[in-house]
Amino acid sequence: VFVTGFSDGGSGSFSQAFRSPDNFAGYFPMMGDPLIPTTDQIQHCYTNLKGAHIYALTGGADPIYPGKEMEKLFKAANKQGADIEYTLYPDVGHTWADNDVEFPKILDYTEQWMRDPLPGELDWTTDLPELGRRAWLSIDETGDLPKALNKAKKLQPEGGGSFRPDLGIKAELNAPPNAPAEVGQLEKGLVADRMGIKEGDVVVGMDGKEVASFTDIRMLLIKKKPGEKISLTVDRNGKRLTFEDKLDKPAKSHPGRVQGKQKPGHVTLEVYDVKKLSIWVAPELLDKKGRLTIKINRDKVFDAVVT
After folding, report:
1. How, if at all, do strands 299-305 and 169-170 pair?
2. Which residues contact 294 (CB under 8 A, 6 or more apart)?
3. Are the C-beta atoms of residues 195 and 209 closer than 8 Å to each other?
């Protein structure tokens, strides 16, 4: 099973690789950004991509995710242990590349790549316990640990990424792509709701600029920064009303990291700011007698036959 997508789907493919690098056989992000939006609240650690099969496409003339900038990110990730193969098309914008070349190549990879359900080595960072499992390890609780207990290498989260604020506005379910930006649904507590926008309003302006569709809104939002002021003008029953508020900032998080190895009968781990973890045992994790020894920070914490 493979994950692929174009544009936001490309960034989403990278997001899946950061969240679950062992759950799929491979990832094919097309014209996306590996530093998925900070509003996804996924820790940007390139080390999470170790062991994941990734083949990416990017365009040198892409105004949203410029190919040369994406190439820098790919190379930075690979220096930290990722294995991102990619093709940069110098003259391609935010559109499909050469389908006649790329689609057969991708199909070839689907024949070659398989997921590894029991990797021998893991390097796993997360700040969301509900997404904290990778193969035979899960990080269940993170928090400050004394310096003496932080034996794993210090966390290396990546800054930046394509910050994309969520206004909390959803279109009508079956609205055409370029239809007027009518508010079909509001998410409570987000920017538009706090402003006083209502369902049924039609957004006609943002920061003093006219907008004709949600596409126009998205293109203007790309240039916005966390915490920045924003104004929306709506048509409400023939009246134009303007509202202002500030964009939300990404929530602060406390990630933890585990670096570990396994061979039949033995698991060795080192942690950084991880207070609780679990080992998920498969028969292949045990020695011939069904025994498992676990060491954390070089201390033996478990040594028994697993029934």
Report:
1. unpaired
2. 267, 268, 269, 279, 300, 301, 302, 303
3. no
**What pLDDT, on a 0 to 100 scale, did the predictor assign at position 85?**
98
Q: Do 5 and 32 meet the contact criterion of CB atoms below 8 Å apart?
A: yes
| 8 A C-beta contact, residue 13 and residue 4 | yes
Among candidate residues 294, 260, 254, the one with its CA nearest the CA of residue 51: 260
pLDDT at 37: 59
| Three-class DSSP labels, the chain | CEEEEECHHHHHHHHHHHHCCCCCCEEEEECCCCCCCHHHCCCCCHHHHCCCCEEEEEECCCCCCCHHHHHHHHHHHHHCCCCEEEEEECCCCCCCCCHHHHHHHHHHHHHHCCCCCCCCEEEEEECCHHHCEECCEEEEEECCCCHHHCCCCCCCCCCCCCCCCCCCEECCCCCCCCCCEECCEECCCCHHHHHCCCCCCEEEEECCEECCCHHHHHHHHCCCCCCCEEEEEEEECCEEEEEEEECCCCCCCCCEEEEEEEECCEEEEEEECEEEEEECCCHHHCCCCCEEEEEECCEEEEEEECC
Dist. CA 145–CA 139, nearest whole Å: 14
* Positions in the chain short of pLDDT 70: 37-43, 159-164, 251
pLDDT tens for residues 72-116? 999 999 999 999 999 999 999 999 889 999 999 999 999 999 999
